[in-house]
Design brief:
Blueprint lengths: L4 E6 L4 E2 H7 L9 H7 L2 E3 L2 E2 L6 E2 L4 E4 L2 E7 L5
Parallel strand pairs: 1-7
Antiparallel strand pairs: 2-5, 3-4, 3-6, 6-7
């Protein structure tokens, strides 16, 4: 299966899953994250995830409803 990756750039040492959902405009507030995660397929680095507070780091690989996202810290060393 061919999946096209979207690069998500963020500042700081990490981004939480809830923050990512807001950044992607999938939810409007952090309170909606729990409901979103209960009704959508989300995995991080190949593992199913339901915690909105899960920390995502540089090079984390996130799949949300078969859409693929690669996280990149803005100031990460290359």
């Amino acid at each position: 299966m061919n999946k096209k990756e979207q690069i998500i750039v963020f500042k700081g040492p990490y981004l939480t899953l809830g923050q990512l959902l807001k950044k992607l405009d999938l939810i409007e507030s952090g309170g909606e994250a729990k409901l979103f995660l209960a009704s959508h397929d989300v995995s991080i680095d190949g593992e199913t995830e339901i915690r909105r507070g899960r920390k995502l780091y540089d090079r984390s690989y996130v799949v949300i409803d078969q859409k693929v996202y690669q996280l990149k810290e803005e100031d990460a060393h290359q």
